[in-house]
Amino acid sequence: MTDDPLEVVDSSGLTDANWAGINRLRQTYREGGQAAFSEALRELAKDPFRYMAVMGACFRDITRELIKDEMAEAGMTEEDLREQVRKLESPARDQ
Predict the structure, then answer these.
(1) Fewer CB within 10 A of the end CB, N or C, for the chain?
(2) What pLDDT digit, counting tens, does each position of 43-55 carry?
(3) Confidence (pTM)
(4) Does residue 71 sit in the same domain as residue 41?
């Protein structure tokens, strides 16, 4: 691993909090090495949204493929996901 364990390849959508997480991981690696970095990743994973944002920014293609594989394993297509997003974004009509 180089001095920078997380090369950001896609910063679109990263929030200040995501950047803080990336910088914390980088600092942890510099100060504590691989073992500390691995522990910091486990800690970050407790916040799945931030974890996915950071991993997606640093490992965009791998993250995308893993998500597609998990969706396929669950029997969900990309269109199913789009439909779920549309439902969540629409105002509730039954209220």
Answers:
(1) C
(2) 999 999 999 999 9
(3) 0.72
(4) no
